[in-house]
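Q: How do we represent a protein-ligand complex in a form that can be generated token by token?
A: Start from the inputs.
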Amino acid sequence: MEKDMDIDLRFGYVAEMYYSVVSLPVPKQLDLIHTWFPGMIVEIREGDGQRKEEPVYDDQKYTIFASRYHDYLYAQGDKRIAQITGRLVGTARSNHEKERKTAELIQKHVSRRIVNEMDPVIQLTEHTAFMIGQMNDEQISTFHHILYDFCIDLAEKYDGMDEWEKDNVPFPMDNETIDQIIYNTFYELLKYTFEGVVNAYLWLLTGSLLRNEAGRITRMFNSSWVPRNKAHSEFGTITDKLKYLLFSEEYESYYTGDDLEKRFPGIEWYCDACEAHLNEQEGFDDHLDAWQCRKCGYINRIAFEEIFDNDDDFQNGILRHSEEEFQKAVENRKKDLHDKEAE
Ligand SMILES: [Zn+2]
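Then emit the structure tokens for the protein with zinc ion bound:
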């Protein structure tokens, strides 16, 4: 790996962070892809490992078939494969249109499998847990630290770039996708659990390997690797989003609507069982202590303690607001509207 490689969300860079902690050399491209995404892009042909067999790419299967030669995958021979894997790992910058397109098709195919099938998600999560499980406690703590700094540095880097710069990096990515990947990674790191580190690294691995095709996954999954609806967020820069996760108490709540007849102005309620939007159900009134979902019959409590920023906070029981602060925001809004009327 190039030592002077700029910090970036590239698969090669993300992988290097792992190998720097376990003090092992970074595997070569084919091996690297196979190591972290087993059975998803590279398939191993049977063999005795004694012959140099060229790898072959099968367009119909979106798969590179490779053979072992001693203890690595033999990658020589087909120049096209070196270009494809180079693009996936994030090192090949040359402009081979056909290989660029092929790499994108592979990325699309893998991302579709992750979104549409349950098995790859389970396997990837277990596999990543196995890989990180090779580290001892001290290494995991170091790894956590490195990933944490990576998120902050990457957020600052992207926030500091203008649109032209973002469009002209070697491997451009949609702002929305990269923001969501950094945010989800950081969210998981702040759990300070083994599972959190696994989920965090899985976000970086898939985000960096699949690039823009990872947008399909960020739209499907919340921060953790359990299928859920994506949360809405109303933040500005990605650095702001991370800061909010760290210091939500420093952020003041505000309310800009005029629905002040409600007990909880501006709050949308969703059924905890079936996720139906309760506000729009006939007869819904947030002054009630509970509401029986008209779709599934589940009884949802309507109370301040039930207000979460997103599904992940709900799952993890993280409340980022105080009732006092919430009421203050509503009072401020009432006062604003009153002052406006008086003018
Ligand atoms: Zn329901």
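Confidence is low (pLDDT under 50) at residues 229-233. The CA atoms of residues 177 and 283 lie 38 Å apart.
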